[in-house]
């Protein structure tokens, strides 16, 4: 999902005509897509960290 957003933002910026008056819309859309991808990645990483902390450590269970 996030790679798709980043690819879309890159494509929008490459195909936008910088001389047109609507170039700011393309830049805004690309920035929103990139920020959305970054927020998604941050939530995913935090979820992975929380899930790994909840798992019992097998070494401590075996050697206790």
Automatic annotation (TrEMBL):
From the UniProt record, give one GO term of the biological process aspect: regulation of DNA-templated transcription
InterPro entries (alphabetical): Perm1
Signal peptide position in this chain?
Answer: 1-18
Q: Does the keyword Signal apply?
A: yes
Q: What Gene Ontology cellular component terms go with this record?
A: cytoplasm; nucleus
Keyword Signal belongs to the record: yes
Q: Per UniProt, which keywords does this protein have?
A: Signal
The name under which this protein is listed is: Uncharacterized protein
What organism is recorded for this protein? Answer: Neogobius melanostomus (round goby)
């Amino acid at each position: 999902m996030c790679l798709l957003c980043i690819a879309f933002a890159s494509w929008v910026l490459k195909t936008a005509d910088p001389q047109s008056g609507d170039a700011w819309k393309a830049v805004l859309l690309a920035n929103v897509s990139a920020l959305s991808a970054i927020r998604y990645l941050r939530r995913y990483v935090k979820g992975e960290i929380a899930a790994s902390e909840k798992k019992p450590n097998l070494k401590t269970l075996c050697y206790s």
